[in-house]
Structure formats: structure tokens, C-alpha cells
Amino acid sequence: MARKDYDVIVVGAGFGGPVVAKECAEAGFSTLMLERAATPGQKVISSCTIPFYGFLFGPEWIMNGNPPIERPVSGIRNNFIRNGETYKIDNSFRIPKPFWPHFAIGYTVYCRPFCTWLADRAVEAGAELRTSVTAVDVIKEGNSVKGVITDKGEELRCKILIDAEGVQNILAKKAGVRDIFRPETIELCLIYDFEMKKEHIDRVCGYNIEYFWSMPDEGMIAPLGDGSAVYIFTYRDSIHMTIGQFLKSDDGRVPAEKVLDDYYQKFFQTECWQKNFAPYVKLRAKIWDTCAIYAGLYEDQRNMPTYGDGILLIGDSAGLEASAIADGVPSAWFSAEIAAQCAIEALKADNTSAVFLCRYEERLRKHPLITALITDPHRKDLAKALKSGNEAEMERRVNQGWGIGMLNHFAFPVINAGIKSILKNPLVPLRWLSMFRRYFKLYG
Ligand SMILES: Cc1cc2nc3c(=O)[nH]c(=O)nc-3n(C[C@H](O)[C@H](O)[C@H](O)COP(=O)(O)OP(=O)(O)OC[C@H]3O[C@@H](n4cnc5c(N)ncnc54)[C@H](O)[C@@H]3O)c2cc1C
């Protein structure tokens, strides 16, 4: 008979869940991971770019392991489009020549193999993984969460529940911990996945990820985009292109249906797409996904709790999606590690009350990077430039958010996180260096 009682149940085997599961199992606690998809990572946005600081300051076993990397990224190329043509490029944020390929600003990954790799590490550590199982409700005794009910009607009990279910955060609502995200915070993204041969990717993009910016009258970005761009990420033999649209604007407007496809059609007519991409790509899939990218920018959403009696929320379900470049994986990893520590402390103290678990939120807030990532206003500020119709202002704002000006916001938190790590372990820079070298080899 399948077991029904655990110390820890983790709902969701995306980017964050397996990290908590592995660390709790390693500490000797019986741990179950539930995943609604048939494979870990399958229901997560199909691929993404994970910034280097996620690997450096996230779980050591990821940094020191050999996760399935697709392609390293050397910089961001911001293309400015007017009348269908690129009139300016800002590639000021890139690894300068002598340091490339020894360092990278990030790595592109496909979610399914990457999350499967993470979940395999959790299973190796002793966690149990059940796939194709959805947690549909929580078991509560008074105010305390005591487990979950699955779509198969099973009651699974635990001392502590980790909600790692991503942006939909239904369990957090059922547990009475949070409300669902407001539509103004949620970006609906339409992703086109194209096959493209490596030789063409190398020639057209180099190791850049590409952003395409324009004024609204170009018809290339969604009108309620609050600073949307078209962006292209590169993988081994494929590229992904994304356009996003917020579910509601600050002034209450709701977008028309199918708007994203219209914007794609406009982008496909640009000179850059026609010349550099169109002859070399083959459409493989279209994928929809959502992220609560602005949850950190609205005070009421940012201040919703991340814990309750018997429950901790990590990653997207805790509203930790980064607000400028949508890089939510680092915060999912950072919060997962903090949640694992707090869960272990609570289990050892035999106290999983909210009063004990409030240390989790305190530690999240003290983390050198999480708050900086979720409160970065650059993308929302860009909306002001787009509304003003001032092209020069748009270019300036793009430079601040996606060009070298980005360092004004991020240099201090990254250096701060670096110093904290070095104080803990002075030898850690050697591991960082070996990680960059190894990851480049993994790609090769
Ligand atoms: C279009 C788009 C582009 C993005 N690009 C990037 C990027 O380039 N870089 C970056 O770092 N981040 C990016 N992100 C954000 C990133 O994907 C998330 O921040 C990250 O996946 C959050 O990790 P998580 O563990 O909190 O949730 P997820 O990784 O979403 O995992 C949640 C898991 O829980 C499972 N689940 C949900 N509900 C249940 C349930 N009730 N029962 C059982 N299982 C359940 C899901 O199937 C899923 O596997 C992007 C997101 C989107 C939508």
C-alpha cells in the first residue's frame, strides 16, 4: 500500500520544488513530491535563460553538478525598430572579449530536461516523486495545513507542506495564506518555438539573446504591454520567440482576443526577421504560459504572506518572479533553499506553527537579491516612454533596463551576494570559475 503520511510534501516539480525536496530528504525527513504533469518541468514554460547569479548563489549542488545546459549567453542585443527596419542597436550589456567564453551572463535551458535533472537529484537523495498527480485541495485542522487531497481523491498528510506550484498558487489560496495574483500583475506570453540550425544561430545571433523594441504605432508590441518587447532566446538547434500581454492594464483595459498573434504577424514582416531568420527557421510549436511578473511591484501583492501554519510558499507561488526580465528561476532556487532550511528547523523543533515559520519570510526579505529582482521598476517605467511617444526616452529606458545601465540596479545586490558567499567560504570563487568553464564544456 502506498504511503500516506510524510514529514514534508512538496507540490510541484518545476524549478523550485525539487530543491526543497532534495534538501529535506537529505536531512533524513520523509519527503513526497507531487507533480501534475507526466514529467517534471513539462508544464513549465518550455525553455528559458537562467542568469549566472542563479547558479552562483543558488544551491551548490546545482552549481557543482552538470545540469543540462542548452547554450551560454554572452550579452543582450537590443534592436530598435522603426518602419519595419532596425535603426539602432544597443549591445552595451555583454561580456567583453577577453572574458568570453570564460564567463557567461546566463545559460539557456529547456525546462523538461532541466527540471527532470533536478527531480532526479531529489529522488537520489531519498524523496519520492509521484507524477500525473494534482493536489486539488489542502487538508486543514483549524488554521493548520496538514496535507493535501489529490485529484484521485487520496488524502496525503504531512507535517509541513511546501507550495511550489508556480504562478497559479491555488493551494495557497485554499490554505487561506494568499489571494490569487491580480490580472494587472500577470503577463500572458505566446511563445513560438522554431527549429534553426546551429550554424545559422551562430551567424545571426552569436551568443546574444535578442530583444526588439519599438514605439506602439509600429504595431509590434502588445498595447497593454507596460514595456513589452519581442525577444528571441537561442538554444542548441532552435530559437524561441516571445511576446507578452498583461491581462489587464492599470487603467482597467482588457486586451482584445488574439492580440498576440496580430503582433507576431507584424514582427514577421520586419526586415530583420525576413532577412536573418525567416529563410532558416521551421515552426515546431506554439506555447502559451503566464507569469506574475509584476507581483513584486504592487505593494499589496508583494506584502501577501509567504507562510502559514504548516505551509511555506516558494518561487512563483510566493510572488517572486523578477519584474524586469522575467527571470524567476534564481528566486525559485533561493527561496527553495531558505524554505528547506526553515522546514528542517521546524521539524527538528517539532513546531510547524506560523509563529515558528515566520522566520522564512524574514530570511526571504533579507536575501541580497530577491527584493532587488522583484522590485526592479525598469520594465514598468518603459511604459511611460512608450505612452509619451518619445523614441529617445524609450532608448534611454531600454539601456537602463536591458543595456549597461542595468548595472545601476543590479551591481550592488550581486556584489553584496558575492561578498556574503565569500565570507562564508573564501574558496567559493574557485568553484565559480570552475563552473563557468565546465558549463561551457557541457554546452560544447
Ligand atoms: C514566458 C515565460 C518566460 C520566462 N522566462 C524566464 C527566463 O528566461 N529566465 C528565468 O529565470 N525565468 C523565466 N520565467 C519564469 C520561470 O519559469 C519561473 O519563475 C520558474 O519556473 C518558477 O519556478 P517554480 O518552481 O516557482 O514554479 P514552476 O517552475 O512553474 O513549477 C511549478 C510546477 O508545479 C506543478 N503544479 C502546479 N500546480 C500543481 C498542483 N496543484 N499539483 C501538482 N503539481 C502542480 C506544475 O506542473 C509545475 O511543474 C519565464 C516564465 C514565463 C511564463
Describe the fold and architecture.
The structure is a single chain. This protein is of the alpha/beta class and 444 residues long. The chain folds into two domains: 5-72 and 107-182 and 296-377 and 408-443, FAD/NAD(P)-binding domain; 184-294 and 379-402, D-Amino Acid Oxidase, Chain A, domain 2 (2-Layer Sandwich), CATH 3.30.9. It has helices at residues 17-26, 52-57, 60-63, 111-124, 170-174, 198-205, 259-268, 271-277, 299-302, 329-348, 354-366, 370-374, 378-388, 391-402, 406-424, 428-443; strands spanning 5-11, 31-34, 47-51, 71-73, 75-82, 85-90, 106-110, 128-130, 135-141, 144-150, 155-163, 187-196, 208-213, 230-234, 238-246, 281-291, 307-308, 311-313. The strands form three sheets. Strands 1, 2, 8, 9, 10, 11, 17 and 18 form an eight-stranded mixed β-sheet that branches. A seven-stranded mixed β-sheet has the order 6-5-13-14-15-12-16, sandwiched between helices. A three-stranded antiparallel β-sheet has the order 3-7-4. Helix 1 (17-26) links the parallel strand 1 (5-11) and strand 2 (31-34). Helix 1 runs parallel beside helix 4 and helix 1 (17-26) runs parallel beside helix 10. The mean pLDDT is 93. The structure holds flavin-adenine dinucleotide. Residues 11-17, 34-37, 43-45, 48-50, 134-135, 164-166, 168, 189, 191, 242, 289-291, 315-317, 321, 326-329, 332 line the site of flavin-adenine dinucleotide.
